[in-house]
Batch of 2 targets.
Target 1
Amino acid sequence: MATAADTTAMRRAVALAARGLGSTSPNPVVGCVVLDASGHEVGAGHHERAGGPHAEIHALRQAGVLARGGTAYVTLEPCNHTGRTGPCAQALVEAGVARVVYAVADPDPRARGGADTLRAAGVEVEGGLLADEAEAGNAAWLTSVRLGRPHVRWKYAATLDGRVAAADGTSRWITSPEARADVHRLRAEADAVVVGSGTARADDPHLAVRGVDGAVQPLRVVVDTEATAVRAGARVLDDAAPTLVAVAEDAAADHLAGTDVVRIPRAAGGRGLAVPALLAALHERGVRSVLLEGGPTLAGAFAAEGAVDEVVGYLAPVLLGAGPAALGDAGITTIADALRLHVTDTTRIGPDLRVTARPASLPTTKEH
């Protein structure tokens, strides 16, 4: 039975884990807190970067001999394998920790089993504490392991009546500078930022992160089916961040020589690219989290494939009455088939409202 002290320590571990967002991929974000035998915090840490020490190692180094007889709180079940670093389960045993509490069981078959190793060594082990909070913070990595594709967060900015542009196509700026700055935080947390050809033509977006200290620049991806939207001089082709242009297998793309291009099969309906194939190609390149910033057409294609894991909408106190809606055709023709969402957060960002929601039901394992 978890105590108030257990919950407090795990919540701190969840907060520590969040510090690794944007810098640990393709590894998970993990936080760890160590209390000594009398319940005082003596060590804390998080996984800072792929290939670097895991959260448990940072926390144990800080705790030193005071970890002996104490309790370690970890947001993810301690790993049980040797990769670029050693197994954390064994490190906890060697440190003399008497009890380990973790939030989420490790779904990776290569690394799981840490709890069994700890129990075999006589360590008391408990799992599931604040699992929902830890899952939410580690959604990208967990999605990639469970589904074999990147986690997709769809971001859009709209008026209060749901328009993403006016009738004449103008859209700058619907939301406030504060909201636009917040989007850069989302970009900094993602491995890739994805837009479609319509956005590339209309906005000539840059897609790099600005104003976030220490940010790792995400891969900029333009879904340019016919290879007609990205041209020489496009801002997305500068050297501020890496860029990938996704085109159809049969598209003429000689003008993109020198640009990283990936060829993707067309969607079954003949319009656009096959979203599952695009996500598979990104996953193969190490992308574990996608920020989808494309317009209504691309967002609709992702939604139709069940490939939207989270929605972040910035709603401005503005009315237009006409113009494109935030979401294009997603294959939904009747209210019974509507994609129902669970709102997880509402926050004022300057004059705007940021609404975060997740589909009420998501697949939990990879389809075969």
Target 2
Amino acid sequence: MGMRAFGKAVFGWLFVLFCAVLFAVGCRREPRPEGEAKPIELTYSIFFPASHIQAQTAAAWAEEVERRTDGRVKITLFPGGTLTPAAQCYDGVVNGISDIGMSCFAYTRGRFPLLEGLDLPMGYPDGKTATRIATELAMKYQPAEIQDTHLLYIHAHGPGILASRKPVRALADVKGMKIRGTGLSAKIVESLGGVPVAMSQPETYEALQKGIVDATLCPIETLKGWKQGEVIESVTDTSVIGYTTAMFVVMNKNSWAKLPADLQEIVTAVSAEWVDRHGEAWDQADKEGREFVEELGREIIALPAEEHVAWRKAVENILEEYAQAAEAAGLPGRAFLQDIQARLAQPAAR
């Protein structure tokens, strides 16, 4: 081999070696600083679609937890029931399918006998009040029915209204109507003379569209958040018997126990702050829901004073039935309702 050929060969090998070194350096991962642990990754199942304001508020909660923990906790959201359907969300948390879950107590009727009292037609003035009262009472009573999870907080919508495919101007118009209602709201439908049909919110749009149900009991925000205003013709303001639907945010007990104490404190603090955040989101959504219905040209019906009396009388037995059933099961149902009424009477609660 001549000198020129030899030089070319050496240069080639040096070039290959140089590239190999660059590749090794470029692909080498920087080691974690000593003592730095991998982030704790949690899954969060939410029945609301990602576009809904409550899913967005939950996402903000998760982001705040991550920020305050300096990235030591990372939470991945699964909205729209993609990880667990709405009715299976709570059991999904219990069984570890998700670490955290959000859905309605009412979707599993009979599973939460004391907390069902939160949904009764108590006359909640707005979502913020309902949310504060629901969380406060659940924390106070700590019922056995939720002891298989760790409760972070509860939020609840503003007063329910009746959205229907035909105008409802009087209590007599409700007789025989098929009305979407879940949990305790189904009992309200029965007391009003309607026929309750149980289904989750994701199913309701199509049911109204196809006439499977004639109406739905819901907060007015639902008509925009779930687009149901598109498939109804009128809204009757039934806030005179306003009820709410309480929604849990719970965590798997083992997942909670694995969090170091300082991280538990942060999650607890952020959750306490998000009680009002969710309540305010409900109230803003109610405002936008009404505007959405008005833009669609749907009629909004105000009940006359004499109808107020009739509607109240129609549902007055529900509270007493709940109290008696709870007491028969060894639960403090009557005291629970008295606590709600006392808090509703306090101006600071509004």
